[in-house]
Amino acid sequence: MSISSEHKPLGKQVTGSLHMLSPIVELNVGGEMYTTTLSTLKKHPGSKLAEMFTGQPKLRTDSEGRFFIDRPGTYFKYILEYLRSNQVPTQCIQDVYKEALFYDIEPLIKQLEDTPQIFGELVARKQFLARVPNYSENIELMIRIARAEAVASRQSSVIVCVVRTEEDAARCQDALNSLDMDKKSVVKFGPWKAVPSISDLLDCIQMDVEAKGYKISFQPHVTEKGFRFKSHDFFYKFLFTWW
């Protein structure tokens, strides 16, 4: 006789109501073990973390019966510190911010966004880059060009044209056309309407490419053609080093 689905074992899925559990809760967060209380986890009722432990269980348990959350366990201790004592972390700010966003702990999110690290990234740098047309797409294009030229090479280079103003864009158009005729791939950034300079944008490009795991450097690139302006005012060579 076949066993009906209602009598099949549920494995480690929690089936009881959470209000029947002990107020002491054991957690397995990405392999890191924590012990805390239900009241701590539910301190901010509107958060995703509180919802995990409200009403019917929304989590599975590990082989030892601990509630399992599939997130980086290293940074959960900072989340708990905040829930227990309202202490805003001073270490691993960027990573803790990602976890605060995941758990949707709004007061912690707002306080982290006031820290210099997050404020500088979100309000200053990201807002600047949002004013640079196609910035993210150009970063990906640079990486594709570099990878395409990496065959049997230690380094590959990408020529980048950076123009801050419409006037600069017009001045370097002849140089761009000549480089196109030489079949050289050029990635163009700008123009933009914001205070940061060309050197600031170059630093951002290097920072964001390195954040993807690549080793790069850059230097002014002088075109071989003779132009009436200094080509290195606009052109830079980014070197990707593979080994």
Automatic annotation (TrEMBL):
Taxonomy, superkingdom: Eukaryota
GO term, biological process aspect, one: protein homooligomerization
Coiled-coil stretches: none
Pfam families to which the protein is assigned, alphabetical: BTB_2, KCTD_C
Domain BTB, chain residue ranges per copy: 23-120
Protein name per its UniProtKB record: KCD14 protein
Gene assigned in the entry: Kctd14
